[in-house]
From TrEMBL:
Protein known as: FIG022979: MoxR-like ATPases
InterPro entries, sorted: ATPase_AAA-3, CbbQ/NirQ/NorQ/GpvN, P-loop_NTPase
Signal peptide residues on this chain, from the entry's feature table: none
Lineage: Bacteria, Bacillati, Actinomycetota, Actinomycetes, Propionibacteriales
Domain of life: Bacteria
Boundaries of every ATPase AAA-3 domain copy: 52-181
Species, as recorded: uncultured Nocardioides sp
GO terms assigned for molecular function: ATP binding; ATP hydrolysis activity
Residue stretches in coiled coil: none
Length: 198
């Protein structure tokens, strides 16, 4: 067997393992999200490609549920950030706080310090707060007070937003939208899936 053949045989085993693990994760998610195989597939592809996912749809179709189901289906740390108009950039990235006892500044990590960050209703935060995610999503690091902190690997942002309701929301800047590998819509469940849920 040549070295090339040896590599090919090893690659096949790796693909089989990947396929089995992905199948188990898919099954886990589909226990929660019924009748949406295309959406689940898109979420898994983005995760495996180390990208970020934007889920856009009307309220009540399972945007946050899909995010949480994916996050809980793999052995990673998960943090949920509820984006609101009063959320500050430092709530997302972290802040340096002065410690009276040690007389030094200590870094307190923000919500992005997890493997999977669920950004719920991202379009409800101010543009300044939304922009706090730019460096995190592109470079997988956070810079606070001229100090760079690397984020854990894997790192994925799953953001949700309601594109219909515009009052009290801020449109995502193009630079931010570009950071997402895919944008999916969950949609209402089909009748058979609704009956199965009941």
């Amino acid at each position: 067997m040549t070295e090339a053949n040896g590599r090919a045989a090893g690659d096949g085993a790796d693909l089989d393992t990947l396929s089995r693990v992905t199948g188990r994760v898919r099954h886990n998610i589909e226990r929660v999200i019924e009748g949406k195989p295309d959406v689940v597939t898109a979420a898994l592809v983005v995760m495996l490609a180390e990208g970020h996912l934007l889920i856009e749809d009307v309220p009540g179709v399972g945007k946050t549920m899909l995010s949480k189901a994916l996050a809980r289906s793999i052995d990673c740390t998960v943090r949920r950030i509820q984006f609101t108009p009063d959320l500050l950039p430092s709530d997302v990235t972290g802040v340096s706080v002065f410690n009276q006892d040690s007389r030094q500044f200590e870094f307190r990590p923000g919500g992005v310090f997890a493997n999977i960050v669920v950004g719920d209703e991202i379009n409800r935060a101010s543009p300044k707060t939304q922009s706090a995610l730019l460096e995190c999503m592109e470079e997988r690091q956070v810079t606070v007070d001229n100090t760079t902190y690397h984020l854990e690997s894997p790192f994925m942002v799953i953001a949700t937003q309601n594109p219909i309701e515009m009052e009290g929301t801020y449109a995502l800047p193009e630079a931010q939208r570009d950071r997402f590998m895919a944008r999916v819509s969950v949609g209402y469940p089909v009748e058979a899936a609704e009956i199965a849920m009941l």
